[in-house]
Design goal:
The protein is mainly beta and about 110 residues long. Helix content is about 10%, strand content about 25%.
C-alpha cells in the first residue's frame, strides 16, 4: 500500500501517523513497515509510525569506454655519422672511454 492510501486510512480512523523514508527494493512511496502489528486495537489519536520506501537505490552504470589497445612499439633505427674533430683527448680512467675536451693545438 502506498503512503497516501495508508495516510487516508489512518486519518479516517482518527489516528495520526509519522513516517521515515528508507532504502528499499520496494517501489517508491510503498509502506514497508509499521510499528503496530496488523489488527492491533489502539486508542484514537495514537501515532502510527511507518517506514516508507525511497525506492530502489539508484545505480549508476560505470562509464562504458571501448577497450583501448596500446599501439605496438615501433623500432626506429637511424644511422648517425658524427664528424668529430681529430684532436680530441680521451679519458680511459673510468669504466667508459669518453671524449673530455679538444686536444691542445700544437704551437707553431
Amino acid at each position: 500500500m502506498d503512503i497516501r492510501t495508508a495516510a487516508s486510512m489512518l486519518t479516517g480512523k482518527n489516528l495520526k501517523y509519522d513516517y521515515d523514508l528508507v532504502e528499499s527494493d520496494k517501489p517508491k512511496d510503498e509502506v514497508i513497515e509499521q510499528d503496530q502489528a496488523k489488527g492491533t486495537e489502539v486508542p484514537e489519536g495514537t501515532v502510527v509510525k511507518l517506514k516508507v520506501s525511497k525506492g530502489p537505490a539508484e545505480t549508476t552504470a560505470p562509464p562504458t569506454t571501448p577497450p583501448t589497445t596500446e599501439p605496438e612499439p615501433q623500432v626506429v633505427s637511424k644511422t648517425v655519422t658524427l664528424a668529430l674533430p681529430s684532436t680530441l683527448q680521451w679519458s680511459t680512467s673510468s669504466r667508459f672511454t669518453r671524449a673530455i675536451a679538444p686536444a691542445p693545438r700544437p704551437s707553431s
